[in-house]
């Protein structure tokens, strides 16, 4: 058996054994690593598909079937959604019974595909998995940068199958706004009121705190732990606040790849007077809010933004709580 150019033959038992070893070593963070592998492979495959969006989707799903990753079926494609189901996923089949979805490599590939098809910040979830008892694995990707608005051009396939080649082409960068919405001018006033902290992701919070104290003699202030999967400690360095962050839960599972764990300087947090107003402003200025926010944070309501395009910086906006 000769694999297609650029591919190697590897049994699913090998990949699943590797997956379980990574899970044993990293716990909830293992999914992020496997999704990253899928993203890398998906990027390589999609780079060779310089095609219209609907044809790009069709060809990648066909390739998934051809290389033995399962029976890929396009269920829905619109300018803001991509829904794919997979029958007989080798990863789910070999993994065995599981309490949660396990096809992280497939999810990573579809994440990359969706990022080229939906033209916006996408969050991909495996909402059903045969390892967890479903009939088929199901992956849902949505462009949350456009909210829940729908364009009139859409493809919906009832009962499986792929759409015909005459599916509509979607214009890149076009956002349809209902006529009932008034035009909103972008405010000339400053959006932010100051820097609250610089976020630094660390492997082990306690070890990092001790090192910062030993090396720099900094004081440790407030500590906080979130149910969404982080614990933090704030350091005061001559009036500048640093936030050391340790991931304790599946952040990517909930919020997508923008908040994927990467050690080092991760984000800058700015204070705003009214978070809802600030988010409306940044959307009007072309930035996008990470799906799942706003939420309550250590010091008030927070929301993360997609990376600023010229620097790649992840930004957090926070409306501080009023003093008790």
Would you kindly provide a written description of the structure presented here, covering whatever features stand out?
The chain is α+β, with helices and mostly antiparallel strands and 324 residues long. It folds into two domains: 12-156, Trafficking protein particle complex subunit 3 (Muramoyl-pentapeptide Carboxypeptidase, domain 2), CATH 3.30.1380.20; 194-320, 2,3-Dihydroxybiphenyl 1,2-Dioxygenase, domain 1. It is built from eight helices and 13 strands. The strands form two sheets. The protein has an eight-stranded mixed beta sheet. Strands 3-4-2-1-5 form a five-stranded antiparallel beta sheet. The longest helix is centred in the N-terminal third of the chain and has 18 residues, at 30-47. It is globular, with a radius of gyration of 22 Å. The termini are far apart.
How many separate helices? 8
Count of the separate structural domains: 2
Percent in strands: 25-35%
- The H-and-E topology, N to C, reads as HHHEEHHEEEEHEEEHEHEEE
In what order do the strands lie side by side in the largest sheet?
A: 7-8-9-6-10-13-12-11
Question: Kindly, what is the distance between the CA atoms of the first and last residues, rounded to a whole number of angstroms?
Answer: 70 Å
Oligomeric status: single chain
Radius of gyration: 22 Å
- The CATH top-level class label of the largest domain: Alpha Beta
- Spans of at least 5 consecutive residues whose pLDDT stays below 50 are 145-188
Q: Name the overall outline.
A: globular
CATH topology of the largest domain: Muramoyl-pentapeptide Carboxypeptidase, domain 2
Number of strands: 13
Structural class based on helices, strands and sheet pairing: alpha+beta
CATH homologous superfamily title of the largest domain: Trafficking protein particle complex subunit 3
**What is the name of the CATH architecture of the largest domain?**
2-Layer Sandwich
Helix content: 25-40%
Specify the biggest β-sheet.
Answer: 8 strands, mixed
What is the averaged pLDDT score? 79
């Amino acid at each position: 058996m000769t694999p297609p150019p650029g591919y190697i033959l590897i049994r699913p038992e090998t990949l699943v054994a590797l997956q379980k070893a990574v899970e044993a070593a990293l716990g909830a963070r293992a999914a992020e690593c496997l999704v990253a592998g899928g993203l890398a492979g998906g990027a390589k495959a999609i780079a060779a598909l310089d095609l219209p969006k609907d044809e790009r989707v069709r060809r990648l799903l066909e390739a998934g079937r051809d290389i033995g990753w399962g029976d890929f079926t396009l269920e829905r494609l619109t300018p803001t959604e991509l829904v794919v189901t997979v029958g007989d996923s080798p990863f789910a089949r070999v993994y065995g019974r599981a309490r949660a979805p396990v096809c992280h490599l497939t999810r990573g590939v579809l994440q990359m595909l969706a990022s080229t098809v939906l033209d916006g910040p996408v969050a991909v979830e495996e909402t059903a998995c045969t390892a967890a008892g479903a009939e088929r694995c199901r992956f849902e990707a949505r462009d949350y940068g456009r909210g829940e608005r729908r364009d009139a051009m859409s493809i919906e396939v009832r009962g499986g199958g792929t759409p015909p080649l005459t599916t509509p082409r979607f214009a890149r960068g076009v956002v349809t706004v209902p006529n009932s919405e008034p035009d909103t001018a972008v405010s000339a006033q400053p959006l932010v009121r100051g820097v609250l902290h610089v976020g630094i992701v660390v492997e082990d919070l306690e070890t990092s705190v001790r090192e910062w104290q030993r090396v720099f003699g900094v004081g440790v202030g407030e500590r906080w732990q979130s149910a969404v999967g982080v614990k933090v400690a704030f350091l005061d360095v001559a009036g500048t606040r640093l936030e050391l962050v340790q991931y304790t839960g599946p952040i990517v599972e909930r919020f997508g790849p923008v908040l994927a764990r990467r050690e080092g300087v991760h984000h800058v947090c700015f204070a705003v007077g009214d978070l809802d107003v600030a988010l409306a402003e940044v959307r009007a200025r072309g930035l996008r809010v990470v799906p799942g926010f706003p939420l309550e944070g250590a010091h008030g309501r927070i929301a993360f933004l997609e990376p600023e395009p010229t620097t790649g910086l992840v930004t957090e906006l926070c409306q501080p709580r009023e003093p008790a």
